[in-house]
Amino acid sequence: MPHMTQAELNQKLEAFHLYLEEKEDLTKFEINHLIELQKKQKIIFRDEFLAINEEKALETTRIGYTPYEQITYSNRKNHLAPQKPDSRHLTRYRMVYGPVEFDDPASPYPTTIPLITTCAINLSTSDNDLKNFSSGGKTDRTLIADIYQNECEKIADFIVGTAKKEGHTHLIMPAFGVGVYISKLSHQSKELAKEIMYKAFAKAASKHQINVEWVIWLNPANPNAANSTIETQKQLTTFAPNNPYIQSVIHEDLLAYTNEQVLGGQQCVMLNAGSDRTIGGRFIKIATTIEEQLVVQSNNFQLLKLHSTLNPFLESPFLEAFKNRKKQFVQPAITSHQQRFFPEKNSSQKEIFIEIAAQIKEMFLTKEKPMLFNLNKGNISVSFKNESDAGIFANGLYKNGIQSFSTGNAKKVQTNGSYFYVVLTKNDYNTLSTMNISQSSNSARDAGFFNSTNAPINNNVDSAKCTIS
User: Fold this and answer.
1) Which residues make beta-bridge pairs with 420?
2) From residue 261, how far is each of 16, 32, 169, 282 by CA, in Å?
3) pTM of whole model > 0.90?
């Protein structure tokens, strides 16, 4: 993107300061135009995002800085994102989508580009992600590849699926989540992470039949950049050689390339590789990340006015949808573990779940068959006599995408007397019942599917009550 001087940035920051102070000198037309754009934005989220407390649901959709740090802005809408949000690992399950206007150096008028703002797994500053997706010391960490792959595929499917649903034929994206967000991995793990992420988007592109263009940045200031970018492009091609829905593109400017496609008539949407902590990154300094560059190149810092809580039209529709969906997926704490799973003595149902119990033993390699108990609100307890079996089961669920809503880790192993159990919500159980668990124990072991050393298991037990984790 075009280099911006400190003086040019300061000028933009001053204008943004006046906007926050509600002193910006705008015409009635400009005000109404901004309002119309704000109304076109929306927050879209996966079910996993429902794990967040409602009061914190919009924390990471705030700006993180103000133009002048020494000034306190009193308006409620200007509250900043916390420096260390405890639920930042859930940010990747929500996105902000809508049209944003960007400055066009070749035209006196801005270009409108539909934008998706969301983030990837943060293996740099998120303690939760570092623990769950890698192992090792403070640096040169080793990627836990299978768990990382599962999560990348969910993220890619979310992004590409949304692009398709919103009527786009092309998704234009930077090298998403494989820059600063993998900074603490070893070189080998960084290369593996890049391969996994690219393949995840290739898989999603093929599934949704939408064209994904992965833009490789060509640094015009680096005389050796051309050769290295060509090598990168060749490498990416080998990751999905027979997939016609994804391609890598070499270009000096992601925004300029997207603008060219929009002016050429493509129904494209651009991916903003955002922060998991805030909207806009540290935009008050000379931009270093994609998101910071997009902020300063957006018309009058418009990206912040549209995709953050500075947009007054984002909050109400989101909170209404959040509350309605949370009622369906997050149940109140359970206080009883005494009711049998087959209280109605429905023989056909009983036979089904006896078979499920047998398959759990076979696929998850437990020493014993579990016992199934019916809890309230459709929740189910899978109970074992052996604590290690319960841990193996919780870990196996985690590696197949069934995890704790509240922590993002493996589900908690709880205790009732001499039994150890894991609670499944109705949605968890439906996922389990359709999971391919008919493989033999040997094939499961050979594939490395439920290696109990690869995922964080919470074996802290709580005998006072049964809770959904």
Assistant:
1) 384, 415
2) 29, 28, 11, 28
3) no
Does residue 361 share a domain with residue 292?
A: no
CA distance 122 to 134: 11
Percentage of the chain beyond pLDDT 90 is: 58
Query: 292 with 264, same domain?
Result: yes
Domain match, 120 and 227 both: yes
The answer to whether 212 and 246 have CB atoms below 8 angstroms apart is: yes
> Over the stretch 440-465, which tens digit does the pLDDT of each residue have?
333 333 333 333 333 333 333 333 33
The count of domains in the chain is 2
Instruction: Name, in order, each residue with C-beta under 8 angstroms of 326's C-beta and a sequence gap of 6 or more.
Output: 50, 54
Please indicate, yes or no, whether residues 124 and 158 belong to a single structural domain of this protein.
yes
Residue 361 pLDDT exceeds 70: yes
Average pLDDT, the chain: 85
Residue 310 lies inside a defined structural domain of this protein: yes
Q: Quick one: pLDDT at residue 124?
A: 96
163 and 256 inside one domain: yes
Instruction: State the amino acid at position 277 in one-letter form.
Output: R
Backbone angles phi, psi at 100, to 5 degrees: -130, 140
**323 CA to centre of own chain:** 20
Q: How far is CA 286 from CA 10, 63, 154, 183, 343, in A?
A: 10, 17, 33, 21, 65
Mark whether 174 and 258 lie in a shared domain: yes
* Helices and strands per DSSP (H, E), number in the chain: 14, 13
